[in-house]
Design a protein that fits this description.
By secondary structure, the protein is of the alpha/beta class. The chain has a single domain (2-94, 165-245), classed as P-loop containing nucleotide triphosphate hydrolases (Rossmann fold, 3-Layer(aba) Sandwich). The protein is built from nine helices and ten strands. A six-stranded mixed sheet has the order 6-7-8-3-9-10, with helices on both faces. A four-stranded antiparallel sheet has the order 2-1-4-5, covered by helices on one side. α5 (146-159) packs parallel to α6. The longest helix is centred in the C-terminal third of the chain and has 16 residues, at 176-191. The structure holds adenosine-5'-diphosphate and magnesium ion (MG). Magnesium ion binds next to α1. Residues 2-243 form the ABC transporter domain.
């Protein structure tokens, strides 16, 4: 679904991602863990081309891009294609405040996918039902809790019918009592066979849902392996101490 090789990203003179290699297969649920500032968000953003890497290559759903790249037509087409197939859910839900839940979910279907209103509405209602918010379809974000807003954001991403979903700390902005409802929705997506990568500090959740895990440190992948390899059996001192200190 996604692979990256030699992926490198700089901000100014700071190398934020160094020679990243990874593969995401269909059905994988990969948790991405590691200290703050280690490059987890930048990695996700490079995989769906919200950030343009400086070196290496990304193959997203069959579209191979090598970096650095000339900004030409083919490049732009590949970037559009990857962004459509690789959905993203952010920490801050980024809903449009002047639109209802339903309008938030239909907007990109109308504008980006150029669907008819009826078609967009049918899909949006289906996905609002998936996240358990059909009854809130006409509510504005200000009338929804943070957990409900994040579930609308997830419905919005699902509505675009992505092949892979990247979650960047989807519960970090939520009050503790609202975390569970969002994790439950993500867990159900994982169980239904969705391909996803999840950056999270919820270690219990990560252990439970992921088939594989990646530990990042200083812009590199320190270890990548099965969930057991990373969460229970890692020989890396820094991974063990990271996990211990979070408990
Ligand atoms: P994480 O998600 O693991 O906390 P990030 O990917 O957000 O880490 O950040 C990795 C490093 O890149 C940090 O040192 C951060 O300050 C830096 N960084 C992230 N985004 C930008 C940006 N847009 N401009 C400059 N530096 C950035
Ligand atoms: Mg981050």
């Amino acid at each position: 679904m996604i692979s990256a090789k030699g992926l490198t990203k700089l901000f100014g003179t700071q190398t934020v991602l160094k020679d990243i290699r990874l593969q995401v297969q269909k059905g994988d649920v990969i948790s991405v863990i590691g200290p703050s500032g280690s490059g987890k968000s930048t990695l996700l953003r490079c995989l769906n081309l919200l950030e343009i890497p400086d070196g290496g290559e990304v193959n997203g759903c069959g579209h191979l891009i090598r970096f650095p790249v000339r900004t030409d037509r083919q490049f732009n087409q590949d970037v559009q294609a990857i962004r459509l197939k690789v959905g993203m859910v952010f920490q801050s839900f980024n809903l449009w405040p002047h639109m209802t839940a339903l309008q938030n979910v239909t907007e990109a279907l109308l504008v980006v996918k150029r669907m008819s209103k009826e078609e967009a509405k049918t899909i949006a209602l289906e996905q609002l039902a998936t996240v358990g918010l059909l009854d809130k379809k006409d509510s504005y974000p200000s009338k929804l809790s943070g957990g409900q807003q994040q579930r609308v954001a997830i419905a919005r991403t699902l509505a675009m019918d992505p092949e892979v979903i990247l979650f960047d700390e989807p519960t970090s902005a939520l009050d503790p009592e609202l975390v569970g409802e969002v994790l439950k929705v993500i867990k159900r997506l994982a169980e239904s066979g969705r391909t996803m990568m999840v950056v999270t500090h919820e270690m219990g959740f990560a252990r439970e849902i992921s088939s594989r895990a990646i530990f990042m440190e200083n812009g590199s992948i320190l270890q990548e392996g099965s969930s057991e390899d990373i969460f229970y059996n890692s020989n890396e001192f820094r991974i063990r101490s990271f996990l211990t200190n979070l408990k």
